[in-house]
Amino acid sequence: MSNQSKQSFTRKWRWLAGAAAGLAAALVLAACGGDDVGGEREGDVEVAEGGRPTGEITISQWPGYIDPGSNGTVAEFEQRFGVNVNYIEDVNDNVQFFGKLQPQLDQGQSGGRSLFVVTDWMAKQMYDLGYLQEFSHEDLQTVFDNILPQFEESDSDPERKFSIPWQGGLTGIWVNTNQAPEIRAVEDLFDPKYKGKVTMLAEMRDTMPLVMQSQGIDVENATTDDWLNTIDLLREAADSGQIRRFTGNEYTEDLTSGNVVAAIGWSGDASLIGREGIEWRRPTDGCDTFFDQMVIPVGAPNTAAALAFMNFAYRPEVQADIATYVNYVTPVEGVQEILLQRDPELGRNELIFPPPELTEGCTADPNPPGSAEDQQEVTEEYQDLITG
Amino acid sequence: MTIGRRFIPYWLLLPGAVWLILFFVVPMYFMGELALRSGTFETGFTFDWQFSNFPDSLEGNEEQIIRSFWYAGVATILALLIAYPLAYAIALQSGRWKLLLLFAVIAPFFTTYLIRTIAWKTILADSSPVVDILQALALIPDDGRVLATSGAVIAGLTYNFLPFMILPIYASIERLDLRLVEAAKDLYASSRQAFLRVTLPMTAPGIVAGVLLTFIPAYGDYVNAAILGGTNQAMIGNRIQSLYLFQRDYPEAAALSFLMMALILVVVLVYIRAAGTEAFMGEDEER
Questions:
Q1: Chain B 49-68, CB below 8 Å of chain A: which residues?
Q2: B230-248: per-residue pLDDT in tens?
Q3: From the CB of residue B138, how many other CB atoms can be counted at a distance below 10 Å?
Q4: A12-48 pLDDT, tens per residue?
Q5: Are residues A378 and A244 in the same domain?
Q6: CATH assignment of the domain containing A126
Q7: Is the minimum CB–CB distance between A380 and chain B shorter than 8 Å?
Q8: Which CATH class is domain B61-281?
Q9: Chain A residue closest to B29 (CA)?
C-alpha cells in the first residue's frame, strides 16, 4: 500500500478503536452506576444467632477499655471457650469510627467485626440506619440476670434489642495538677494563661453540654441558637489559639507528653495517661455522663461467639477484673461487693461507683434540639469548628 | 507490514489504558455524578443536576484553600532548597559512597507515611530537646511551641515529600554531560557561572518534575495537618475528609474535590508554560 492510504487506514482504525472503547466504558458505567446513595440500608433487620461459640471473632473497642495481658479478660475468654479473639482498639471517636465503617455497613458487611462498642446515641443512629443486628434475650441469660436495674432499659434502646451496656463514665476535665492546679471548671479552660495548652473533645455531645453549662445554659431546654452561639464561642477560642485542638481518645497522648495541661476527657482513662500528677476532676460548673454499648453489626461473622462474649463480660468476677483496671462505671450487679473485699479503696472509688451527688444534674450526651435540618445544621457547624 | 504488527502499539497501550479507565475515568464519572446529587445522608441522595453544589462547596473553605497553597508552596520551595544540593553532592561528589548515600536518603521512607508523621509528633513535642534548642536559639519564644502551628505542618510536608524532590533531580544531574561544564570552564566561565548557565538549565527537567511531584500531593494532603496541626492549620484535604467521612455530605465533598482538581490543573498548566516546554520535555533548545 502507499503511504497515504496506509495513514488513512490507520486513522480509521484509530477512530473505531476509540469508539469501541468509549462504548465499552459507557456500558460498564451504565451497569454499575445509578444506585441510591445514602439513606437507610435496604433489607430486613437480622437477628443474631446464638449457639455454642467456636472459631474466632474480631472485636473493635475503644483504647484502654479492658484489662489487658495474659491474665486479662480477653485471654480468659479465649481459654474458657476456645475462641480466638482478635481484639483491636480502633474506636477513637464515634463519628470517625462511623465514617470509617459506613460504606461497608451500608453493603451489609462489618469488615470482619463481630462486635464493637460505641456510645449509646451512635448505637441508636446505627440501628435506625439498619446497620445493627438485634438479639433475643434468651441468648443473653447472664447479661439480663446480672444487669443493674437502672440499665435494663434506656432512652436509646428501650427494649434492649440491639445494645448491651459495656461501661460508662463521666466527661470532665483531666488536669495536670503540677502545672495547672487551680483548673476546676470548664470556664477555667478559657483562661488566657493556658493558651494553647488546652484541648477539648471532638465529640460534640461531650464538649458542647459542658461548655453550655459553664455558660449558664440549661441544656435540656436549649434552643438551636443556644448551640450555635456556643459553637461561635468555641470558634473564637479556637481561632485565637486558646484551644490547641479537638481530639478523640488521643488527648491522653498530649497529657502524657506534657503538650497540654488540661483536657476535656473521660473519667476512666487513667490507664492511658503515663504521667504523674494528672487527675480527673468533675467540673464545678457542669457535668456529662455517657454509656458505651456493645453492638453486633450486620454481616457479623460468628455471632454465637459475640453473644458468648457479652454474657462472659457480665459475670461479676470478670467485671470486677475489668473495673479494677479500667476505672469506669460498671453496669453489672455484685461488682461492688467483690471489689470491697479485694481492695476496699477501689470498692469505694467514686469513678466506678459514682454517688448520686456526683451525677446529679449531669446531662447524658444529648442530641442537638429541633428538627432533622436543625440538628444537621448544628452538626455541620460543629464539624467545621473542629476541622479547623 | 502484516496487519497484526500494525496493532502492536495498541496492544502495548492496552494495560495502561485499562488501568486509566478503571482507576481514573470510572471514579471520575462516579464522583461527578455524586457531585450533582442533593439530599441528606439519612434520607438518601438523589440525582437531580444540582450544579449549585459547586459554588456552594467553596463557601466557608476559602481560608483552607489559600492556606493549602501557602503550605504546599513553602514546603515545595524548602524541599527544593534541601534536595538540590543533596542530589548534587550525591551524584557528583560522593565517589564510592554514592549508593550508600542514596540508600540512606531513601531508607527512612520504607516506613509508612503515617508512622513517620506520628514520629514527628514526638520529635516536635513541647518538652523535646529539639524544641529546647529552638528556644535557646530564640527562634521561638520561651513559652512557644512547634506542634499545632503552621511550622510543624510545613515541616511535616517538606519531610514527607522530600524523596519526590530528590530522586528526579538526582536522575537529572546523573544524566548531565560533565564535558559541557568542562567546556564552559575552558571558555573562562567561573564555577558559579558554569553552574548557573550550564548545570542548572540542563537539570531543569528534574526540577520541574520534582516540583510537580511535590506540590500536587502536598496540596491535597490532610495527614500532616491532622497530626501535627491544631485548630488553625486545617488544609483543604481536611475539609474534604470532614465533609465526606464525618458530615457525610457526599455531594459537597465530591464537588469540592472536583474544583480542587481543576484548580491544580490550571496551576500546573501555567507552571509548565512558564517553565517552558523544553525544560519539561528535556529537549535541547534549537539555536
A1: 60, 64
A2: 888 999 999 999 998 888 8
A3: 8
A4: 767 766 666 666 665 565 555 556 666 777 777 778 7
A5: yes
A6: 3.40.190.10
A7: yes
A8: mainly alpha
A9: A29
